[in-house]
Amino acid sequence: MKQKPFLYILIVLIALTLLSAIVSNSQITYASQLIMILSALKFLAVAFYFMELRHANVFWKVLLIACLTIFISLVLII
Predict the structure, then answer these.
(1) What is the C-alpha separation between 78 and 64, in angstroms, rounded?
(2) How far apart are CA 2 and CA 19, in angstroms?
(3) What is the mean pLDDT of each run of 10 residues along the chain (78 residues)?
(4) Residues of 66-77 as b/e, b for ≥16 C-beta within 10 angstroms?
(5) Per-domain residue ranges for the chain?
(6) CA 55 → CA 14, 35, 63, 75, distances in Å?
(7) What is its main location (predicted)?
């Protein structure tokens, strides 16, 4: 198991979390949408790198992205 890609993904996850915290404390008009997009990116990073979905069948990748897209769309609509 190579440790470098996991370290880079961990740094990206920490940076996205800090960016989410900064956006939540700002007065940006579309802060909730931006936070949802950042959380989706974090979810995909964890799923593909730490849950090893990058080696899975294409069906599972498409299903995961479709479910995530539907979920975030429903949350943003409501």
Answers:
(1) 21
(2) 27
(3) 78 94 90 92 91 90 94 90
(4) eeeeeebeeeee
(5) 4-77
(6) 24, 28, 14, 29
(7) membrane
